[in-house]
Design goal:
Blueprint: E1 2-6, H1 10-21, E2 25-30, E3 46-49, H2 53-65, E4 70-72, H3 81-90, E5 94-97, H4 103-119, E6 126-133, H5 143-155, E7 161-164, E8 173-180, E9 186-193, E10 198-205, H6 209-222, E11 227-229, H7 231-235
Parallel strand pairs: 1-2, 1-3, 3-4, 4-5, 5-11, 6-8, 7-8
Antiparallel strand pairs: 6-9, 9-10
Helix pairs in contact: 1-6, 4-5
């Protein structure tokens, strides 16, 4: 499989390592020195995009117009998802997007949903969240934290929205503490606290390898398919 990397920072380089280990070829590397308009799309079977929220939708549109399936790991662009879904439909495209490609994190998502379902029967507990990432991460809270919070909102009747802890937090909102520290690939924690005790689940990424492997698995899954997919489809 010929892979085009849209974004060739630390994440792109980690994806390259995994892709080569799995027998794939990197035929394009897009960054500041090699802009996307220089890509030879005839030599790309699938693109993997990890850049910035303000660029992601533009990159998706370029891939769709060039009939190139695209896996998107950038977060904080999902307010444009209806537009992107329509674009995929109009251009008969292929898109797979996720807030987190790590298999471990997606298991964590399942645990989080189940725990929220259980805790819905125990209103004496208050939920809160904390996420820690490297200082280069621009969006806060992380896309993974937002996904975790939204899943809790679906399963737990008390909560209707989430807020950063710096903001005023109501009884109906999930407080998220977003921290940025050097050399942290990603930590996510969900806590339920009462006067008596605390129940806590946590996922700690030790490196970027899990994210990179998941992105390559997603690219392998997307080949030959049309439409919009997520990591739930990959892991079924």
């Amino acid at each position: 499989m010929k892979i085009g990397l849209i974004g060739y920072g630390k994440m792109g380089q980690a994806i390259e390592t995994i892709a080569l280990e799995r027998g794939h070829e990197i035929t394009a590397r897009v960054n500041r020195d090699h802009p996307i308009h220089e890509v030879n799309w005839e030599d790309v079977d699938v693109a993997i995009e990890f850049t910035q929220p303000d660029l992601a939708v533009q990159h998706m549109e370029i891939c769709m117009k060039n009939h190139t399936p695209i896996v998107v790991g950038t977060t904080a662009w999902q307010q444009d998802l209806p537009k992107v879904n329509q674009l995929v439909s109009d251009l008969n495209g292929s898109l797979l997007h996720a807030s987190n490609f790590s298999v471990g994190v997606n298991i964590f998502f399942e645990i989080n949903r189940k725990l929220a379902e259980i805790m819905n029967r125990h209103p004496e507990y208050t939920v809160s969240m904390k996420e820690i990432h490297h200082v280069q991460k621009l969006d806060a809270p992380s896309g993974t934290a937002v996904s975790l919070a939204n899943d809790i909102i679906v399963e737990h009747e008390q909560y209707t929205h989430w807020q950063l802890v710096a903001e005023h937090v109501s009884n109906q909102s999930i407080s998220i503490n977003a921290l940025r520290e050097p050399n942290v690939p990603g930590t996510h924690e969900v806590s339920y606290t009462s006067e008596i005790d605390t129940i806590r689940i946590e996922h700690i990424a030790h490196n970027r390898k899990g994210f990179a492997l998941g992105a390559v698995l997603a690219a392998e899954f997307l080949m030959g398919k049309k439409g919009v997919y997520t990591m739930k489809d990959v892991l079924k």
